[in-house]
Amino acid sequence: MSILPKKNSLGFFEIRLESIGGLGANLAGKMLAEAGVLGLGLNGSNFSSYGSEKKGSPVKSFIRFCDEEVEIRDHSPIEQPHVIGVFHEALYKTVDVISGLNSDGIVLVNSTRDFSAIKEDLQIEYGTLAIVDALGIAVEERTKVNTAMLGALFRICDFLDPDAMRSVIRKTFEKKYPHLVEPNIRTFDRGYHEVQFRTFETPVDAVGKTFSRLEPALGYETQLIGGIITAQGNSIMKDLSGSRQGFLPELDQDACIHCAACDNVCPDYCFVWGEGEDKRGRKQMFLKGIDYQYCKGCLKCVEACPTTALKEIRETIGFAEEKQVKHDFPYVAGGIS
Predict the structure, then answer these.
(1) Who contacts 308 (Cβ-Cβ below 8 Å, separation ≥6)?
(2) Segment holding 136, helix H or strand E
(3) Which of 56, 186, 264, 327 could cross-link with 243 by S-S, CB 3.0 to 4.6 Å?
(4) Rounded distance, CA 92 to CA 118, Å?
């Protein structure tokens, strides 16, 4: 008898993890598949999709399970998953994280917000929504987000054996990082027990989310010769806030000495300066604030600051929008603003 709760037409139970580089979704997918295959005797496969392997860039990890008598000959990306794990909740701003979700599917989100806010942002109409504060658990246990998310995923996929994952954690860390074995097991257990669920009734005639595959605006037939950038300075239109891994710098103006050490190490032109006069009436540039649109939370500025003017804080919803000091660019996308 099959232990899989659901199967698609090919006999697969499919999971897709949506994340950004640095949160460990790739490793989480490998460990999840290993626990199902070695621990339960299921057939399984795992692979990930990412671009330049750059910290903060979008990452997808795919896991397929099927009964042992079924061969896995499908190695395409998962477009209609039964379960989606969202490692970074701000990712929905740039990526359709629930694309292709089945009507009775389950979405797990790493967040501290309530169900109604996340349901509205992700535009979930029915199915099951699960929330776990994976980042908070990881900070307290000094581990990574992925282990807490794995704990919550094992609670969702109750056909999987948590002891099998604990064995995988030990096997993964005991040789090179033995001191991380117990903290990661505690993190896994907390994710397993602290995840919360809310199910929204699914109508009989409900249909799943349509999977959308993004296509580039310029292809081989429409690309300009030489790959010309049609709008100069177009990088100023980008929003890097989705790259932050849960932390950002906070500026204390009273403690700032306007030394520009932060600006010297910032890779993304986050700091906004304005001309003013010092106490003696001499002209000087003063730090006005941070444009969080370009801040990806690398926190190099906090390390470089010689005073207590910059400190690392955990990002909360609305903080960046409230504290943001925007750049004033006189030339924007080919015109004058």
Answers:
(1) 252, 255
(2) helix 134-141
(3) 56
(4) 10
